[in-house]
Amino acid sequence: MDKRTILIVEDSRSVAMTCKLQLEPLGHSLLMAETGREALALLRAHPVDCMLLDLKLPDTDGLDILREVRRWPAPPSTVVVTANASLSVAIEAVRLGAFDYLVKPFAAARLTTTVTNALANSELKREVETFRRVVEHDGFGDFIGRSTPMQRVYRTIEAAARSSASVFITGESGTGKELAAQALHRLSPRAGKNIVALNCGAIPRDLLESTIFGHVKGAFTGATSDQEGAAMRANGGTLFLDELGEMDIGLQTKLLRFIQTGQYERVGEGRTRPADIRFVAATNRDPAEAVRQGRMREDLFYRLYVVPLELPPLRDRGEDILLIARRFLETFSKQEGKAFAAFSAEAEARLIAYGWPGNVRQLQNVVRSAVVLNDGVVLTETMLPPLPATPSAPAAASRDAVPKGVDGTEIRRLADVERDYIEHAIRVCDGNIHVAAKKLGISASTIYRKKEGWA
Ligand SMILES: Nc1ncnc2c1ncn2[C@@H]1O[C@H](COP(=O)(O)OP(=O)(O)OP(=O)(O)O)[C@@H](O)[C@H]1O
Ligand SMILES: [Mg+2]
Known about the structure:
Helix content: 40-55%
Number of strands: 18
Number of helices: 19
Bound molecules: adenosine-5'-triphosphate, magnesium ion
Strand content: 5-15%
Strand order of the largest sheet: 2-1-3-4-5
Largest sheet: 5 strands, parallel
Oligomer: single chain
Structural class: alpha/beta
């Protein structure tokens, strides 16, 4: 199981410590709260998967916390803890959605098992819920696609949305990073406030500071009036720092201070202002590489890299390519007053075999231009614009061209050798899965199915 977050809500320090020591070996993140207020604050700030909740707290009835969180989109799996055998309360807690209860004093083994089960339950609930939605809509929000790697993306978005933890989105150009930032905001409790997107790469360096923080009249030449910045407009909402990898290093220091303190100053003004902001950053470069090269401050990176969200390249999403293409065909045909209702089988084979270096945006452009320039009901292969030859996928290219493990003494998992060999064959056939499948003596759909499993 991946690393999860467990919140222990317990006012007795000694009981809290005992639970902490017993749960630490599970390897998850542990958060501690002594009061109901602290617990709710932590629940709002972090995606908590399991909550161990003492029902008797100094400031709140534990049941009130349960009543509150059960209304949230993805509440944590809660295990309530009661003193002696006040069973009727425990039963009420379960009726309010608690996963299980423990009666004090409880054995260490019982605690570990119950929490482990609660974590498994929360994972399962989230998977089922996301899957149900994805299957119903062939996607999630504005995202089209139901491939395994995208379902993972949707689950992360859903889980992260309810907290204020910073999200760091990576992915090649055109994979939907902006769409993901919008979804994170729209599904969050901040949805009623603004999401402000800042393209750190497109704003001139000397204007970026005043764009983020605002300025007062006369702060610099051209500052003819007071101007509010993104920080003020995003207050209570989300600030999306797009193309963060392009931000001037000097300004990164100011940004870091802003994130750490939650306070900022307009340019030319002595007074600090508070801001309650959820940060989402995105870059299509490798952020760790940017840190190594000194283009991104390491402390800023770690401050923002709380929930990593990686958008897979389109070529790794299998049949999603067709789901997206068909939806675009429908939309653009309607927009352009055309009659296109479907792609020909050859056109679809071409779309699915192509490497899509520009990802969904490129697919969008290809379908739009085909619709604009042609007429008919079926969009055929010859109507597609020329697709530039692509170098093989970066991930695949970094693997050895010849599969290892067929000589020497190293023994590799058969599944890995098979994967390497199939990827090798696809590369040799210039990314054409259908040709590769024929040469391998298997069907193309077998390759697609296997690709889903690899993601
Ligand atoms: N899964 C998807 N389904 C439908 N449309 C999508 C999907 N992913 C992206 N798009 C659309 O593709 C276009 C590009 O997406 P977006 O701008 O979010 O990409 P990006 O990762 O931010 O790209 P860049 O790195 O170039 O800024 C947008 O029009 C977006 O609506
Ligand atoms: Mg973008």
